[in-house]
Amino acid sequence: MEREADLYPPVKAFLEAQGYDVKGEVGAADLVALRDGEDPIIVELKLRLNLTLYHQAVTRLRMTDLVYIAVAKPKGRMARRSLRENTILCRRLGLGFLTVRLDGTVEVQCDPGPYAPRKNTFKREKLLREFHRLQGDPNDGGSTRHGIVTAYRQDALRCALYLAESGAEKGSIVAKATGVANATSLMRNNHYGWFAKVETGVYALSPKGQQGLADWGDALE
Q1: Cβ-defined contacts of 164-173 (< 8 Å, 24+)
Q2: Is the pTM for the entire model greater than 0.70?
Q3: Residue from 103, 107, 67, 110 nearest 85 by CA
Q4: d(CA 193, CA 202)
Q5: Domains of the chain in sequence order
Q6: What pLDDT, in 10s, does the model give residues 14-67?
Q7: Helix axes 121-133, 151-166, angle to 10 degrees
């Protein structure tokens, strides 16, 4: 499909098959459908999802609660994610979401209506744990020069700083000295490559760890 107008015939046929009388370019709306005195359906057509489409659709909610956006079905590596995220957004806004395949098949991703999302308690608690574990405000709402500072990285930095001063040490001693309870497993897993195993349960700072301290040293301030 190369034009927005190419979306109109399949969407019209889809609605007519459900008993609607359909007309295009009615007032400011791309498509209006009526059936047996029910509230009108308005569909805004765009080849691709964009902010303008959402603005138009939300404006149409002033005229009816039955507003859909319709786009050519996304293709490519990120298509599934795009569909999922935009379906969630449409539900949040009370909009319906239609996609049109190359063969003209219309798929309903969601219908318009009120949306009351369920809170994800696990994700909420995970967010709060990360908040309380972070020392200070190292990210300033964005990112540092080398990336985002996480509580896990701060724990790794505490271990690295201790080893830089003490030399090779047992994980249990590092844990006690730094307050990082999982210091042994953290150094064993060595996610950042900052630690070198000297013997069972004993770790030293690697050359990459020395560079890590230089790059991330201000993340504990």
Answers
A1: 164/205, 164/209, 164/210, 164/213, 167/204, 168/198, 168/202, 168/203, 168/204, 169/202, 169/203, 169/204, 170/201, 170/202, 171/201, 171/202, 171/203, 172/201
A2: no
A3: 110
A4: 15
A5: 4-110 (3.40.1350), 135-216 (1.10.10.10)
A6: 999 999 999 888 888 999 999 998 899 999 999 999 999 999 999 999 999 999
A7: 30
